[in-house]
Design brief:
Elements (H helix, E strand, L loop, with lengths): L13 H24 L6 H14 L3 E2 L11 E5 L2 E3 L14 E10 L2 E10 L5 H19 L7 H15 L3 E2 L5 E3 L6 E5 L16 E4 L2 E3 L5 E3 L6 E3 L5 E3 L2 E6 L2 E4 L7 H11 L2
Length: 273
């Protein structure tokens, strides 16, 4: 009887992590550009065009465009659309919507991947709280990604925060992943589960962490386009993502403009006696 082997995790040299930082910075700056562009009346295709131009003008290649036939530079998922929404010139954003924008770029053969959920105009307090809970769960997951930890320590940190905030639906079947010379690599990182399982994290490993949280049920369905994933109850969802590297000094968030310093300082102050 053969023992099942865990899939190998790509480990980068410090020099290769720096190359990933270049890709991550381009993704982070693209998302900030899109955040500023989101307003009532803009279409998801307008945002896609803006993203592609910015990535290519700055020496990158969109990761998503052409990936298994996907037609967009970004995934643009509005309201009940959780992930993988296809940009569409006929899809106009309206006041009170939320849009999740997932973006990837390749620079010098290395990938960066991140996502934000942005309010369109004025949104309800319930939706704003959903965004806050989801984003903080991402950062708690990232903070758990330290050398010597186990992979599911990330998953547990995400789930524990969300569960403590209310009866939200944590999406299953979709999650984070390894990243490096390819956009999607082993291992899968669920957004739920017990701590203390999976591979031990070591310096040079890089992962994309991406909680997806629904106002209602965790149940999902894929639309006939073969891409767009939606909530089955029609209630809204939020999605945040960052790419990070495990380092001897702690997690380094490659797609955050400040590498995560502000958020990590906030989390540390929240837990201080």
């Amino acid at each position: 009887m053969f023992k099942r082997r865990r899939p190998a995790i790509q480990v980068k040299t410090p020099e290769q992590v720096e190359l990933m930082r270049a890709a991550g910075l381009l993704v982070g700056r693209t998302l900030e550009l899109l955040r500023e562009a989101v307003k009532p009346g803009i279409t998801t295709m307008d945002l896609d065009t803006l993203a592609e131009r910015h990535i290519r003008d700055n020496g990158g290649v969109p990761s998503f465009k052409g990936y298994h036939g996907f037609t967009g530079t970004i995934c643009a998922s509005v309201n009940e659309e959780i992930v993988h929404g296809i940009p569409n010139a006929a899809k106009t954003l309206r006041d009170g919507d939320v849009i999740s924008i997932d973006c990837g770029a390749i620079v010098g053969g290395w990938h960066g991947d991140a996502a934000i959920t942005v309010p369109v105009g004025e949104i309800s307090a319930e939706l704003r709280r959903l965004l806050e809970v989801t984003e903080e769960s991402l950062w708690r997951g990232l903070a758990a990604g330290r050398a010597g930890a186990r992979l599911t320590d990330i998953s547990h940190a995400i789930e524990a925060h969300i569960r403590s905030q209310g009866p939200y639906g944590i999406v299953e079947g979709y999650g984070g992943h390894g990243i490096g010379t390819e956009m999607h690599m082993d291992p899968l990182i669920p957004n739920h589960g017990a701590a203390g399982h999976g591979p031990v994290l070591t310096a040079g490993m890089c992962f994309a962490v991406e909680p997806m949280v629904n106002l209602g049920t965790k149940e999902t369905a894929e639309l006939a386009d073969g891409w767009t994933v939606v909530t089955t109850d029609g209630r809204s969802s939020a999605h945040f993502e960052h790419t990070f590297a495990v380092t001897p000094d702690g997690p380094r968030v490659l797609t955050a403009l400040d590498e995560g310093r502000e958020w990590f300082a906030k989390l540390e102050s929240d837990t201080s006696p």
